[in-house]
Amino acid sequence: MNARLLFGALAAFALLVPTAPADAQRRRAAPAAPVVRDWTQVTARTNDGGIRFGNPNAPVKVIEFISLACPHCAAFSAESDEALFGTYVRSGRVSIEYRNIVLHGPDLAATVLTRCAAPLAYLEMSRELLRTQQQWLARINDLTAPQRRELNGLSPLQTVQRMVPLLGLDQVGARYGLDEEAQRACLANQDNLSWVAAIQNAARTQYRVSGTPTFVINGQVAQPNDWAGLEPLLQTGR
Hints:
The protein has 12 helices and 6 strands. It is an alpha+beta fold. The protein is globular and about 55 Å long.
């Protein structure tokens, strides 16, 4: 059989083979894999001045009042972050919102600088400052007498601007997307100090926060402030 006849026979045979209806073909198609969203990458700055990570409609909503100079906050971050974000936030079941509480001048400088960064960078930068808390806080002890006198004569905003390089925080910020120009512009903005003050006032009046870390779960202040006590509450939402 020559090639022309062969192709003609194949074409004629194809006309004899019944084709499945389109809807039957769709039924036999493999189901699409479910879309799994990584909620740890979803962030937002909230109207209350916090920075939220996770599903905004999560059934369990957590607020952590945190201080970058608080040893207990550093301990909680070290023991909880892997499970908190890797299990609870990632799945969409839990969202966590950070609201900074400031203990003193160095804490204020670190807090304002972290809030200058994009939300995901804010989280990673805060984690680094909690891990290295003792080192950067210890630099305050190395200040000379003239440097201390200089700081005492400055306004709060000027104190933050001066303290960031004195404590080496400018180098930390540079690793998280804050170049010299971005830091200068952000640290010159009085609104950044106003936001921190507003968060602190609301923490005291609305939730009676007196220490850090303090956790609020679905609107209620939680009694435990360690991971062992907090994790069961994330499972129940109370």
